[in-house]
Write a structure and sequence with these properties.
Elements (H helix, E strand, L loop, with lengths): L5 E4 L3 H9 L7 E4 L2 H10 L1 E3 L2 E3 L12 E4 L3 H11 L8 E4 L5 H9 L2
Parallel strand pairs: 1-2, 1-5, 5-6
Antiparallel strand pairs: 3-4
Helix pairs in contact: 3-4
Length: about 110
């Protein structure tokens, strides 16, 4: 499967770190954010390592080919319901968290 659309769920330290490393791919990676965090990101961008980035934001209604999950392990269970809006039948889930429990939790929630 060719990955044409990628999204990142989680704009904390893991998401920002990925953003710094993938500057040349910013047009291809969109962030999934909502509410006040989305408004702030659209207005102020994300400050990372002294640079401000204005990443694109994924809109509901379609599914990315690749969905990277960059949350703290403790946030994953509470975020599963929200993730369901972005996981289609062919979406590849890629946890960016430490340990194996995140992969197991995602596999259980999205068989």
């Amino acid at each position: 499967m060719k990955i044409e659309q990628a999204a990142l769920f989680g704009a904390g330290s893991v998401g920002r770190s990925l953003l710094c490393r993938q500057r040349e791919n910013l047009d291809n990676i969109k962030f999934i954010v909502h509410g006040s965090r989305r408004e702030r990101m659209e207005k102020e961008g994300l400050l990372t390592r002294g640079e401000t980035f204005f990443p694109k934001i994924w809109e509901k209604g379609s599914y990315p080919d690749l969905l990277m999950v960059g949350l703290k392990n403790t946030q994953l269970k509470a975020s599963i319901a929200e993730l369901r809006d972005y996981v289609g039948p062919n979406t590849i889930l890629m946890p960016l968290m430490n340990g194996i429990s995140a992969s197991e939790e995602l596999r259980e929630a999205f068989p």
